[in-house]
Amino acid sequence: MNVFGVDIGGSGIKGAPVDLERGDLVAERHKVLTPHPATPDAVLDGVCEVIEHFGWSGPVGATYPGVVVDGAARTAANVDKAWIGVNAAQKLAERVGAPVTLVNDADAAGIAELRFGAGRGRTGTVILLTFGTGIGSAVFSGGQLVPNTELGHLELHGHEAEARASTRAKEEGDLSWQHWARRVQKYLAHVEMLFSPELFIIGGGVSRKADKFLPLIEGIQAEVVPAQLRNNAGIVGGAMAAALASRPAGSASHPHPAATTLTTPDLGSAAGF
Ligand code: BGC
Protein backbone atom coordinates (compact mmCIF):
# COMPACT_ATOMS: atom_id res chain seq x y z
CA MET A 1 0.00 0.00 0.00
CA ASN A 2 1.27 3.49 -0.87
CA VAL A 3 0.40 6.66 1.05
CA PHE A 4 1.79 10.15 0.53
CA GLY A 5 4.04 11.49 3.27
CA VAL A 6 4.98 15.14 3.61
CA ASP A 7 7.32 16.66 6.15
CA ILE A 8 6.78 20.33 7.03
CA GLY A 9 9.99 21.83 8.37
CA GLY A 10 11.33 25.27 9.15
CA SER A 11 13.40 25.43 5.96
CA GLY A 12 11.78 22.98 3.57
CA ILE A 13 8.58 21.07 2.77
CA LYS A 14 9.51 17.61 1.49
CA GLY A 15 7.29 14.79 0.32
CA ALA A 16 6.95 11.61 -1.69
CA PRO A 17 4.67 8.60 -2.00
CA VAL A 18 5.75 5.95 0.51
CA ASP A 19 5.68 2.18 0.17
CA LEU A 20 4.45 1.12 3.59
CA GLU A 21 5.60 -2.48 3.24
CA ARG A 22 9.21 -1.44 2.76
CA GLY A 23 9.12 1.85 4.67
CA ASP A 24 10.76 3.58 1.78
CA LEU A 25 10.00 6.28 -0.76
CA VAL A 26 8.51 5.11 -4.04
CA ALA A 27 10.00 8.04 -5.97
CA GLU A 28 12.65 10.63 -5.27
CA ARG A 29 11.25 13.18 -2.83
CA HIS A 30 10.27 16.65 -3.98
CA LYS A 31 11.14 19.69 -1.90
CA VAL A 32 9.99 23.30 -1.92
CA LEU A 33 11.34 26.01 0.36
CA THR A 34 9.20 26.88 3.37
CA PRO A 35 7.74 30.35 2.73
CA HIS A 36 8.46 33.14 5.18
CA PRO A 37 6.46 34.16 7.08
CA ALA A 38 5.48 30.49 7.42
CA THR A 39 1.79 31.13 7.96
CA PRO A 40 -0.58 28.15 7.65
CA ASP A 41 -2.02 29.21 4.29
CA ALA A 42 1.40 29.93 2.75
CA VAL A 43 2.80 26.62 4.03
CA LEU A 44 -0.24 24.66 2.87
CA ASP A 45 0.28 26.17 -0.62
CA GLY A 46 3.76 24.64 -0.51
CA VAL A 47 2.40 21.29 0.70
CA CYS A 48 -0.11 21.25 -2.18
CA GLU A 49 2.69 22.05 -4.63
CA VAL A 50 4.68 19.04 -3.38
CA ILE A 51 1.64 16.74 -3.60
CA GLU A 52 0.69 18.03 -7.09
CA HIS A 53 4.24 17.44 -8.29
CA PHE A 54 3.45 13.71 -8.12
CA GLY A 55 -0.16 14.03 -9.37
CA TRP A 56 -1.16 12.33 -6.09
CA SER A 57 -4.84 12.10 -5.20
CA GLY A 58 -4.99 9.62 -2.27
CA PRO A 59 -4.55 9.91 1.50
CA VAL A 60 -1.83 12.13 2.90
CA GLY A 61 0.09 12.03 6.16
CA ALA A 62 1.79 15.29 7.10
CA THR A 63 4.15 16.21 9.92
CA TYR A 64 4.25 19.48 11.81
CA PRO A 65 7.04 20.80 14.08
CA GLY A 66 4.86 21.33 17.15
CA VAL A 67 2.18 19.71 19.31
CA VAL A 68 -0.72 18.33 17.24
CA VAL A 69 -3.98 17.22 18.80
CA ASP A 70 -6.90 16.02 16.66
CA GLY A 71 -5.37 17.54 13.51
CA ALA A 72 -4.87 20.98 15.07
CA ALA A 73 -1.59 22.65 15.98
CA ARG A 74 -1.34 23.59 19.66
CA THR A 75 2.15 25.09 19.76
CA ALA A 76 4.45 26.86 17.31
CA ALA A 77 7.91 27.12 18.87
CA ASN A 78 9.76 27.56 15.58
CA VAL A 79 7.01 28.46 13.09
CA ASP A 80 4.57 31.34 12.70
CA LYS A 81 2.32 31.68 15.77
CA ALA A 82 -0.69 31.89 13.43
CA TRP A 83 -0.63 28.06 13.37
CA ILE A 84 -1.86 27.79 16.96
CA GLY A 85 -5.42 26.51 17.03
CA VAL A 86 -5.59 25.95 13.26
CA ASN A 87 -6.87 22.54 12.20
CA ALA A 88 -4.36 22.17 9.41
CA ALA A 89 -5.37 18.55 8.75
CA GLN A 90 -8.90 19.65 7.95
CA LYS A 91 -7.77 22.64 5.86
CA LEU A 92 -5.43 20.49 3.83
CA ALA A 93 -8.04 17.73 3.42
CA GLU A 94 -10.43 20.30 1.94
CA ARG A 95 -7.75 21.44 -0.50
CA VAL A 96 -6.54 18.03 -1.64
CA GLY A 97 -9.96 16.34 -1.51
CA ALA A 98 -8.59 13.32 0.38
CA PRO A 99 -8.13 12.30 4.02
CA VAL A 100 -5.22 14.05 5.73
CA THR A 101 -3.55 13.09 8.99
CA LEU A 102 -1.31 15.57 10.80
CA VAL A 103 1.19 14.48 13.43
CA ASN A 104 4.15 15.91 15.32
CA ASP A 105 7.36 15.63 13.27
CA ALA A 106 9.41 13.79 15.91
CA ASP A 107 6.56 11.36 16.60
CA ALA A 108 6.44 10.60 12.87
CA ALA A 109 10.20 10.05 12.74
CA GLY A 110 9.92 7.87 15.84
CA ILE A 111 7.28 5.50 14.49
CA ALA A 112 9.27 5.15 11.26
CA GLU A 113 12.51 4.37 13.12
CA LEU A 114 10.78 1.95 15.45
CA ARG A 115 9.24 0.01 12.59
CA PHE A 116 11.92 0.24 9.90
CA GLY A 117 15.08 1.72 11.39
CA ALA A 118 17.26 1.86 14.47
CA GLY A 119 14.48 0.88 16.88
CA ARG A 120 13.28 -2.22 15.02
CA GLY A 121 12.18 -4.96 17.38
CA ARG A 122 12.90 -2.93 20.52
CA THR A 123 10.23 -3.24 23.17
CA GLY A 124 11.75 -1.43 26.15
CA THR A 125 11.70 2.33 26.65
CA VAL A 126 13.08 3.90 23.49
CA ILE A 127 13.50 7.65 23.00
CA LEU A 128 14.10 9.24 19.63
CA LEU A 129 15.42 12.79 19.75
CA THR A 130 15.65 14.92 16.62
CA PHE A 131 18.26 17.67 16.61
CA GLY A 132 17.61 20.51 14.19
CA THR A 133 16.11 23.97 14.52
CA GLY A 134 14.55 22.67 17.72
CA ILE A 135 14.78 19.37 19.59
CA GLY A 136 11.91 16.97 19.03
CA SER A 137 11.14 13.80 20.98
CA ALA A 138 9.26 10.54 20.58
CA VAL A 139 8.96 8.25 23.61
CA PHE A 140 8.04 4.54 23.27
CA SER A 141 7.46 1.75 25.73
CA GLY A 142 6.48 -1.71 24.59
CA GLY A 143 6.31 -0.32 21.04
CA GLN A 144 3.64 2.18 22.10
CA LEU A 145 4.16 5.89 21.55
CA VAL A 146 3.24 8.59 24.05
CA PRO A 147 2.56 11.42 21.55
CA ASN A 148 3.60 15.07 21.87
CA THR A 149 6.19 14.59 24.61
CA GLU A 150 8.11 17.83 23.80
CA LEU A 151 11.28 16.92 25.68
CA GLY A 152 13.20 19.59 23.76
CA HIS A 153 11.61 22.17 26.04
CA LEU A 154 12.91 20.66 29.27
CA GLU A 155 14.76 23.19 31.35
CA LEU A 156 18.41 22.45 31.91
CA HIS A 157 20.77 24.66 33.93
CA GLY A 158 18.28 27.52 33.66
CA HIS A 159 17.88 27.28 29.88
CA GLU A 160 15.42 25.59 27.59
CA ALA A 161 17.30 22.52 26.31
CA GLU A 162 16.68 23.22 22.62
CA ALA A 163 18.07 26.75 22.98
CA ARG A 164 21.40 25.20 24.06
CA ALA A 165 21.67 21.80 22.39
CA SER A 166 19.82 22.02 19.04
CA THR A 167 21.89 22.16 15.87
CA ARG A 168 20.66 25.72 15.47
CA ALA A 169 22.35 26.55 18.80
CA LYS A 170 25.51 24.90 17.46
CA GLU A 171 25.42 26.98 14.28
CA GLU A 172 24.45 30.26 15.91
CA GLY A 173 27.06 29.89 18.64
CA ASP A 174 29.64 28.60 16.14
CA LEU A 175 30.29 25.73 18.57
CA SER A 176 32.87 23.03 17.88
CA TRP A 177 31.66 19.41 17.71
CA GLN A 178 33.34 18.85 21.06
CA HIS A 179 31.58 21.80 22.71
CA TRP A 180 28.19 20.92 21.25
CA ALA A 181 28.60 17.20 22.09
CA ARG A 182 29.14 18.20 25.73
CA ARG A 183 25.82 20.02 25.74
CA VAL A 184 24.08 17.09 24.04
CA GLN A 185 25.64 14.74 26.61
CA LYS A 186 24.28 16.82 29.51
CA TYR A 187 20.88 16.85 27.87
CA LEU A 188 20.88 13.08 27.31
CA ALA A 189 21.98 12.52 30.92
CA HIS A 190 19.03 14.64 32.08
CA VAL A 191 16.52 12.76 29.92
CA GLU A 192 18.08 9.48 31.05
CA MET A 193 17.65 10.49 34.68
CA LEU A 194 13.93 11.01 34.01
CA PHE A 195 13.12 7.99 31.80
CA SER A 196 15.94 5.38 32.00
CA PRO A 197 15.48 4.34 28.38
CA GLU A 198 17.31 1.32 26.96
CA LEU A 199 17.95 3.15 23.70
CA PHE A 200 18.35 6.73 22.45
CA ILE A 201 17.96 7.20 18.70
CA ILE A 202 19.53 10.44 17.48
CA GLY A 203 17.64 11.84 14.49
CA GLY A 204 17.43 15.04 12.48
CA GLY A 205 19.75 16.14 9.67
CA VAL A 206 22.76 15.96 11.99
CA SER A 207 22.36 12.17 12.29
CA ARG A 208 24.26 12.00 8.98
CA LYS A 209 27.30 13.34 10.83
CA ALA A 210 26.94 11.02 13.82
CA ASP A 211 30.59 9.98 13.57
CA LYS A 212 31.61 13.56 14.40
CA PHE A 213 29.82 13.76 17.74
CA LEU A 214 28.47 10.42 19.01
CA PRO A 215 31.96 9.11 19.86
CA LEU A 216 32.42 12.24 22.01
CA ILE A 217 29.39 11.46 24.17
CA GLU A 218 30.24 9.57 27.34
CA GLY A 219 28.64 8.37 30.54
CA ILE A 220 25.20 7.54 29.14
CA GLN A 221 24.03 4.10 30.22
CA ALA A 222 21.53 3.65 27.40
CA GLU A 223 22.70 2.71 23.95
CA VAL A 224 22.97 5.85 21.77
CA VAL A 225 22.65 5.25 18.03
CA PRO A 226 21.99 7.40 14.96
CA ALA A 227 18.64 7.20 13.19
CA GLN A 228 18.76 5.03 10.08
CA LEU A 229 16.10 6.59 7.88
CA ARG A 230 17.90 9.92 8.09
CA ASN A 231 16.01 12.72 6.44
CA ASN A 232 13.23 10.49 5.17
CA ALA A 233 11.99 9.39 8.59
CA GLY A 234 9.41 12.21 8.77
CA ILE A 235 8.00 11.45 5.32
CA VAL A 236 7.78 7.71 6.03
CA GLY A 237 6.36 8.24 9.52
CA GLY A 238 3.80 10.76 8.27
CA ALA A 239 2.58 8.23 5.72
CA MET A 240 2.51 5.49 8.40
CA ALA A 241 0.41 7.73 10.65
CA ALA A 242 -2.10 8.29 7.84
CA ALA A 243 -2.36 4.54 7.26
CA LEU A 244 -2.79 3.86 10.98
CA ALA A 245 -5.49 6.52 11.17
CA SER A 246 -7.54 4.93 8.41
CA ARG A 247 -7.51 1.41 9.86
CA PRO A 248 -10.95 0.25 10.93
CA ALA A 249 -11.45 -0.09 14.67
CA GLY A 250 -11.18 -3.64 15.91
CA SER A 251 -8.99 -4.85 13.06
CA ALA A 252 -6.79 -7.59 14.40
CA SER A 253 -3.55 -5.80 13.73
CA HIS A 254 -4.74 -2.49 15.08
CA PRO A 255 -7.44 -2.86 17.69
CA HIS A 256 -7.52 0.72 18.99
CA PRO A 257 -10.78 2.68 18.77
CA ALA A 258 -9.01 5.98 18.05
CA ALA A 259 -8.01 4.57 14.69
CA THR A 260 -11.50 5.12 13.34
CA THR A 261 -11.09 8.87 12.94
CA LEU A 262 -8.95 10.17 10.17
CA THR A 263 -7.54 13.19 11.92
CA THR A 264 -6.81 11.48 15.24
CA PRO A 265 -4.28 8.83 14.43
CA ASP A 266 -3.48 6.32 17.09
CA LEU A 267 0.25 6.39 16.76
CA GLY A 268 0.62 3.85 19.48
CA SER A 269 1.46 0.64 17.78
CA ALA A 270 4.39 1.46 15.55
CA ALA A 271 6.05 -1.82 16.34
CA GLY A 272 3.01 -3.82 15.34
CA PHE A 273 2.17 -1.71 12.31
C1 BGC B 1 8.76 21.62 18.91
C2 BGC B 1 8.49 20.15 18.75
C3 BGC B 1 9.19 19.64 17.49
C4 BGC B 1 10.65 19.98 17.54
C5 BGC B 1 11.37 19.57 16.28
C6 BGC B 1 10.25 21.86 18.94
O1 BGC B 1 10.52 23.22 19.09
O2 BGC B 1 8.18 22.12 20.09
O3 BGC B 1 7.12 19.89 18.66
O4 BGC B 1 9.01 18.24 17.41
O5 BGC B 1 10.83 21.37 17.72
O6 BGC B 1 10.84 20.19 15.16
From TrEMBL:
Residues 248-265 have a biased composition (Low complexity). Residues 248-273 are annotated as: Disordered. InterPro entries: ATPase_NBD, ROK. Pfam families: ROK (PF00480). It comes from the Bacteria. Belongs to the ROK (NagC/XylR) family. This is ROK family protein.
